[in-house]
Amino acid sequence: MKCTPILLLPMLLAGCAWLAPTYHRPQMPMPDKWGTQQAATVPDGGEWWRSYGDPVLDALVAEALKNNDDLALAGAKLQQARAQYKYAFANQLPSISVAGSDAYGRLHLHDDLPVAHKMSNLGFVGGMLNYEADFWGKNASLSKAAKAGVKAAGYGYAAARLSIAAATVKLYFSLRALDRQREILQQTIETQTALLALVQRQHEVGAVDALVVQNVTEQRDAAQAALPDVEDQRGKAESALAVMLGRSPQQIIGQIMERGRDIDALAIPIPTPPEIPSTLLERRPDIAMHEQTLIASNFNIGFARAAYFPTISLASLAGVNNIDIDNLYRATTRSWTLAASMAAPVMDFGRTSSGVKLAKAEKNEQVLLYKQSIRTAFREVHDALLEQNNAHEREQGDGDKETAAEKTVELTRLRLKHGYSSRLDVLSAQVLAQQAELAHTTALLSSLDASVDMYRAIGGGFDTRAPQDRKQK
């Protein structure tokens, strides 16, 4: 079977994008180091949330990644980008269609022919092939731009996945912290109520003055006033987490959110940025997304420039003709045609040049967005480092205060047992210990949130490099 030149042209020209500028990644000065020599600690598979050691949290994140609406929208955009690429790629290939016609009428022949002028059927059945020769790479540029768009949508999906996972984890941590704060406040109210009753009895016998009673009353009232606020925040955290998980309105209203480990039982990892700062460009899906969008805009310039040049189209028609003149004359013939057409722009009043300027301006915009994403990424890593260090120190300090306060309560009870302290001293020490526990819970939440922010800042295990490139240091 012979292969005609017109069928070889798509394969010869499919890789052409001659009018698109050569792409060069925009360069920005990169730091030599972060101030830490540790390598990033991200679990295999990118499931960094497993580092906290809570199976309930793992299940909630998996549910969010399956049902979240924002992630579903990102997936829909990826499907659209794939369909757009398939359409653009197919536009480089010939189109083959079937053509047919049938007519009924009179065929007028010369009078001297021995054929009566009868009514007859005139029919044609055949195939048609159309192809636009892509000599200037217009369709190839459009195809390559669409292919970069698919990659950008894929990286956008990865960025949305990371964002959804981080938001789910932080909402869960907030819920567990509010649960603990609610318990501590309830205990504090009970302790301060008992303390107030004791102080009032002492006031009645003249052991303390009214100012002491007033101070204890204000402390008890403050704890009671704080409890409804915590309850309100706790309910809102539950509903926000339910929405993040993609649950139904019925579940949002009526279902109780699952709980796992207490906040003080969660492991607190200390993730660190990559050893070489420049590799952050391959670890952040949002940066990769902006770069692919930039690459697509680069090919769009080639598409716009192609409008300066002629459009050359080839068409071929082949089929069978049939003429039937009332059974007196019957004939079947085969025919084919091959035609070429060219349309060259002469005067478009600046339409093409405006299109090229628009494409270049869009590329410049994408360059700025790409550089902006890099700056944002390094700022987030820098801020996450500061946040993580400060939160860790604050958590350790508040933890030491809580331990010291609990030790004071223990010693005060021991002194009470031997008659050296009063019940008032024990209750007062308990109030101070509960306040220290509240502060430590807040510090624990800050430390957990800081670790999530660091995981998110370093890409959460995402990496655009090939496996063999990742092993190279």
From TrEMBL:
GO terms for molecular function: efflux transmembrane transporter activity. Residues 175-233 form a coiled coil. The keyword Hydrolase does not apply. It comes from the Bacteria. The keyword Disulfide bond does not apply. InterPro entries: MdtP/NodT-like, OMP_efflux. It is a lipid-anchor. Keywords: Coiled coil, Lipoprotein, Membrane, Palmitate, Signal, Transmembrane, Transmembrane beta strand. GO terms for cellular component: plasma membrane. It is found in: Cell membrane. Residues 1-19 form the signal peptide. Gene3D superfamilies: Outer membrane efflux proteins (OEP) (2.20.200.10). Its main location: membrane. It holds the Pfam family OEP. SUPFAM superfamilies: Outer membrane efflux proteins (OEP). Belongs to the outer membrane factor (OMF) (TC 1.B.17) family. NCBIfam families: outer_NodT (TIGR01845). This is Outer membrane protein OprM. It comes from Komagataeibacter saccharivorans. The gene is oprM_1.
